[in-house]
Design a protein that fits this description.
It is built from 12 helices and 12 strands. By secondary structure, the chain is of the alpha/beta class. It has a domain at about 45-145 and about 175-300 and about 340-350: Rossmann fold, CATH 3.40.50.150. A hairpin with a 6-residue loop joins strand 1 (about 1-5) and strand 2. Helix 1 (about 55-65) packs across helix 8 (about 255-260), helix 2 crosses helix 3 and helix 5 packs across helix 12. The two termini are about 30 Å apart.
């Protein structure tokens, strides 16, 4: 069997692949077969709030068609440059071990596959893991990777997972670089799987993103600032940030409708307002993306000093770990591992959709859950 960094979603033991790599199992005999498209479904049925959480097939098709036009390629290129720079720094410290890269909320794989290709072009040895709660999205991503593999005559070097970003089925502190594009941020979950010296890179929309489209859809636009730095909490420190801003023109009604369908504006907007787009064959829009680069904070050195001092005092009674957690920034993540699985692991209700302002509410909204979540 081949060892992997995957964890069994049932018992949290390591998963190992058989010789053919067509199935994986843990020491407790929980087994998971690889689908014919190449992906693994590690999302347990009782962890889902709906039969098919995340992006629908219709939404995946729209997003795939739109992104394949390279409308957002500048965002992807900027992200790839940052990832490669981080990977080169880490490669000097990993003693020739392949880097473990995770794309959280990978969707249909456009950004993931281009990131994988960029790392490969720079001859950086790595293993890419793409994770999404939408089965339809992961199927599309796996097919994309397989098609490129056939075209280049190279084996597929990526792992595609149907799973929740709230409960990532990967070994603790096994990821060197994690990315997350246009989705809700869950730092506690990320901190469990990213190494102490690892990077977390998120992409969110800026204030002017798709402003021309939004002006046609909403009677009034209310700005609400989204701060990734504040949302990432104390477990990560910001080391860099960049803005990607430019204009591009949607050149057909189909492209306009694909863009609308792949965003939450499709379900947020009144039907009569969406009609204003139906007669357009061209629309120039502003693309405004913010990229933030974080690094996982290291264990405070004081914690090691406390442990050393305690070991020297022969008569000191051993104390429960929880009493020293105040000086250990990793305590939050460690404690969370021991807690029972969260009942509500389907994040589709609160996830921020592709291309949407993460905290923006432009129209008074009803209390219905978001059926378009991308996680």
């Amino acid at each position: 069997m081949t060892t992997s960094i995957l964890l069994c979603p049932v018992c949290k033991e390591s998963l190992q692949a058989n010789e053919s790599n067509k199935s994986l199992s843990c020491e407790n005999n929980h087994s998971f077969d690889r689908a014919r498209q190449g992906y693994l479904n590690l999302l347990l049925a009782h962890k889902k709030k709906s039969k098919n959480p995340g992006d629908s097939q219709e939404m995946v098709i729209a997003r795939q068609a739109f992104l394949n036009s390279d409308f957002y390629r500048p965002i992807s290129d900027s992200l790839n440059q940052i990832v490669v720079e981080a990977a080169l720094k880490l490669s000097k410290e990993t003693l020739a071990q392949p880097l473990q890269v995770l794309d959280i909320g990978c969707g249909e794989g456009y950004y993931s596959q281009r990131m994988h290709n960029s790392l490969s072009d720079h001859q950086i040895e790595h293993k890419l893991h793409g994770l999404d709660i939408s089965k339809d999205a992961v199927i599309a991503a796996a097919k994309r990777a397989k098609a490129e593999s056939t075209l280049t005559s190279k084996p597929v070097q990526s792992e595609w997972l149907v799973a929740s970003a709230i409960d990532i089925p990967l070994q603790a502190h096994s990821i060197d670089i994690a990315t997350c594009l246009f989705t809700r941020l869950m730092p506690e979950s990320y901190h469990k799987v990213i190494k102490q010296d690892g990077y977390f890179i998120c992409v969110n929309t800026g204030e002017k993103h798709l402003i021309e489209l939004r002006e046609k859809l909403y009677d009034k636009i209310t700005k609400v600032e989204f701060d990734p730095i504040k949302n990432m909490g104390e477990d990560f420190e910001l080391i860099d940030q960049q803005q990607v801003s430019y204009q591009n023109t949607l050149s057909s009604q189909q492209q306009i409708q694909d863009l609308l369908l792949m965003t939450p504006h499709n379900w947020r907007t009144k039907a009569e307002n969406k009609e204003s787009l139906s007669s357009l064959e061209e629309l120039t829009v502003t693309i405004d993306a913010q990229i933030h680069v974080f690094k996982a904070k290291e264990v405070i050195q004081a914690q090691a000093a406390i442990e050393e001092e305690s070991a020297e005092e022969e008569t000191v009674e051993e104390k429960p770990a929880v009493k020293t957690s105040s000086s250990n920034p990793w305590a939050k993540a460690e404690a969370a591992v021991e807690k029972p699985a969260v009942e509500n692991t389907d994040i589709e209700d609160s996830v921020i959709e592709q291309l949407a302002e993460p905290a923006e509410k432009e129209e008074p909204q009803n209390s219905k859950p978001n059926p378009w979540g991308k996680s």
